[in-house]
Amino acid sequence: MSDAIVRCDVTAGVARVTLNSPGNLNALSDAMLAALSAQLEALSQQNTVKAIILRGAGKVFCAGHDLKEMQAGRAAPDKGAAYFADLFARCAALMQMIPALPQPVIAEVHGIATAAGCQLVASCDMAVAAEGTRFGVNGVNIGLFCSTPMVALTRNIPRKLAFEMLTTGQFIDATRAAELGLVNRVVAAHQLESETAALAQTVAAKLGDAVKTGKQAFYAQAEMSLADAYAHAGRVMVENMLWRDTDEGISAFLEKRKPDWAQ
């Protein structure tokens, strides 16, 4: 499995999913999109997996779409129109799958995350970046506005700053990405793996059903009005309070002992 385009190993409830195509900078080729989507779908069915780390092999996290593959699509009679529409639809489905997964997904980012690679970081629930990592939606530099990466980016950082990145094609560094909210924290490069693992393990140690329910509610309420968000969140908390494991968790806290959760 070491030569698979996407690798996955699971330890102590944490799945480490690796984009394993360093030769093309882990580009989101047709094969990569299919393999990554299939891997994440498989993990969504595994109750023992409580958190997912998404990382890239080699020098970078992900350089976006495979431009050589895209150019080859122009050979079709329609000059690639159908292929491009299908490609962007498949990519959008992957990006929407990530927040819909029951487990939190943490991007472990190094090197560069550009265009659809930056979109991938923005689509994850959390992100840890190594010092020196650069982020960009730089398609405009080659005449292609990053319209689909824009969707995730504008839901992560202030609009005016997103627009500046999209129209100038300029990169931001990891420190600036953290200031804007694109990543949660920046760590020394040699600590990237351990710091990301520590965050994932902290999440994995929580009651899995609570995190799953909370993640669903988090994204649902964000699209609602203030009143509807409170009403929805209240219903979720009532349901959560009635669980056996939540009763046990609260009792254990009050009794100053470790909870005996069923899962």
From TrEMBL:
InterPro entries: ClpP/crotonase-like_dom_sf (IPR029045), Enoyl-CoA_hydra/iso (IPR001753), Enoyl-CoA_hydra_C (IPR014748), Mitochondrial_ECH-domain (IPR052377). Keywords: Fatty acid metabolism, Lipid metabolism, Lyase, Transit peptide. The keyword Lipid metabolism applies. It holds the Pfam family ECH_1. GO terms for molecular function: enoyl-CoA hydratase activity. Gene3D superfamilies: 2-enoyl-CoA Hydratase, Chain A, domain 1, Lyase 2-enoyl-coa Hydratase, Chain A, domain 2. PANTHER family: ENOYL-COA HYDRATASE DOMAIN-CONTAINING PROTEIN 3, MITOCHONDRIAL, PTHR43602. May play a role in fatty acid biosynthesis and insulin sensitivity. Belongs to the enoyl-CoA hydratase/isomerase family. NCBIfam families: PRK08139.1 (NF006008). This is Enoyl-CoA hydratase domain-containing protein 3, mitochondrial.
